[in-house]
Amino acid sequence: MALFERCVKGNMNSKKGLDSVKMSLEEAVKMHAQPFNSIEDLTPLLEAAGDAKFVLLGEATHGTSEFYTWRAALTKKLILEKGFSLIAVEGDWPAAQQVHRYIKSFSKEEQQPREVLQAFKRWPTWMWANEEIADFIYWLKMHNDTDRQSVGFYGIDVYSLWESMEEIVHRLTDIDPSGEAINLAKQVLACFESFNRIPENYAAAAVDFSKSCEKAASQLLASIRSNEKLYRDSYESDLDLKTNALVVKNAENYYRALVQSNEISWNIRDEHMVEVINEVRDYHGREAKIIVWEHNTHIGAASATDMKNEGMTNVGQILREQNRVEDVYAIGFGTHSGTVIAAPSWEEPHEKMMVPPATPNTWEDLLHRTGAFNKFLLFDSQNFTLFDRWVGHRAIGVVYDPELEAYGNYVPSKISQRYDAFIFIDRSHALSPL
């Protein structure tokens, strides 16, 4: 890994570097953690990001208010001070496009932020349909209305197979109703509709290749790409069509892979998200700077966790492999205790749950024991080896059982390899779903 090699070379001939491994993680945190209470306190973190073209902002849960509000505050500074103009989130492309059109004033219809966020209808709706995001997208719209540097908002996840198909048919009906692509799109939609919008039904049937929609989905994407000039307008219709077609192709592959292996389907999903990130940047120019909002398990390098043993990769890992080390800067987030929005099982209604104090000797416990206050750490050549040791690191998903946390919510990690910096919220609070 490039970051690891760079930092080790900076320490290998230093006595301080050799002696540093004798220091405990707790002592290392005491030495290098910096407290923060305001966005200005995080200025050293933004300075450390330098001229990175990708800034990846993580979260340890999908339901913590502080993760959203601090990511929003950092994003605003990156936009205002470092010229970032693209935001990519772990959400569906069609729903995020409603936000994108709102903040760029593509529609003449007057809407309020909370109305716009009703577009996020697929469970877990609270991830993006919440008060914290409503406030943030209102700021983005006001910024775009007054600034020449217009900021875009894009969903990069793979789950919106049927929504993306409907969007393609709708768009092509308006733009090119007699073209080849609309006929292909209707064929693909008919193929998928026979499974009653239940991915598991498709996954089971697609084991028999003759019943899969793979070939039709690939043909649709190829057709749209070959004719994208026909769809070009000032509302990014060409990008919208092409990306929805990409979602359909990769979602078909993802759901078909679910019956084979969780590891394979995970990789397909994260590879898709990187593909969309690159499509968006290509569309706006390779010098465009992009901020990515995703769970820590996506933005922190997979090679610095036990995911590597399972042959799994992720967004942060792939972006590091595709780009120069100085162009990608990843910031992890974590908390010691508090409350969170999550669900007890898949597709059940969300609940406000307690987040118990972190398990002893985990990363979050060490950060709490060294002072019960918010703090951040920067990992560089001076302290890289201090934090290059295995430690359990908390991860809470959309499904959560606090009573079982110690048995499955801690990912073995080498923190300084996984992230370039880390933000710790000692006591956090549940976000506010709409």
Tell me what you see in this structure.
It is a single chain. The protein has 434 residues and is α/β, with parallel strands linked by helices. It has two domains: 2-84 and 290-428, EreA/ChaN-like  fold (3-Layer(aba) Sandwich), CATH 3.40.1660; 161-284. It has 18 helices and eleven strands. It has helices at 2-11, 15-20, 25-32, 43-49, 65-82, 93-103, 113-116, 131-146, 161-175, 180-193, 199-205, 214-226, 237-257, 262-284, 296-299, 315-322, 363-369, 415-418; strands at 34-35, 54-57, 86-89, 152-155, 290-293, 328-342, 351-355, 375-378, 390-394, 410-414, 421-428. Strands 1, 2, 3, 4, 5, 6, 7, 8 and 11 form a nine-stranded mixed sheet that branches. The protein has a two-stranded antiparallel ribbon with strand order 9-10. β6 (328-342) and β7 form a beta hairpin. α12 (214-226) packs antiparallel against α13 (237-257). The longest helix is centred in the middle third of the chain and has 23 residues, at 262-284. The chain is globular. The relative contact order is 0.19. The model is unreliable at 1-20 (pLDDT under 50).
Short description:
The protein has 18 helices and 11 strands. The protein has 434 residues and is an alpha/beta fold.
In helices, the fraction of residues equals: 40-55%
The top-level CATH class of the largest domain is Alpha Beta
Number of self-contained structural domains: 2
Q: What name does CATH use for the topology of the largest domain?
A: EreA/ChaN-like  fold
Please tell me the CATH architecture of the largest domain by its name. 3-Layer(aba) Sandwich
Give the biggest beta sheet.
Answer: 9 strands, mixed
